[in-house]
Amino acid sequence: MNPRISKVFPTNDYKLVLVFNNGERRIYDCSGLLNFGVFNELKNVGYFKQVKVLDGTVVWPHEQDICPDTLYLDSIKEPVHGVR
């Protein structure tokens, strides 16, 4: 089983900075979901930023959610600045 989300930080460009319960920080780009049915509402950046963690994944007020395995497998490691 992949790690689960413990914290989420939304950005202005429809990305989620995710902190997983194994300590990893990863970035998931939601922009590809914005024209996809139930996720249309996320186009409103104010609504997008209402994301929260519930039961190890991310959710929005009108019950949109993303599978935690998808979040882990389709995200990228957050770059560590200043390290070469």
Q: What attributes characterize this protein structure?
A:
12% helix; NE0471 N-terminal domain-like; 2 helices; 7 strands; four-stranded antiparallel beta sheet; mainly beta; 84 residues; single chain
Folded structure, characterized:
By secondary structure, the protein is mostly beta strands. It has a single domain, classed as 2-Layer Sandwich (NE0471 N-terminal domain-like), CATH 3.30.2020.10. 12% of the residues lie in helices and 32% in strands. The chain contains 2 helices and 7 strands. A 4-stranded antiparallel sheet has the order 1-2-3-7. The protein has a 3-stranded antiparallel sheet with strand order 4-5-6. A hairpin with a 2-residue loop joins strand 4 and strand 5. The protein is globular.
Radius of gyration: 13 Å
What's the N-to-C terminus distance?
A: 31 Å
Outline, from the CA principal axes?
globular
CATH architecture: 2-Layer Sandwich
Number of helices, where a helix is a run of at least 4 consecutive DSSP H or I residues: 2
What name is given to the CATH topology?
NE0471 N-terminal domain-like
β-strand percent reads: 25-35%
Q: Structural class, from helix and strand content?
A: mainly beta
CATH superfamily: NE0471-like N-terminal domain
Strand order of the largest sheet: 1-2-3-7
Overall pLDDT: 94
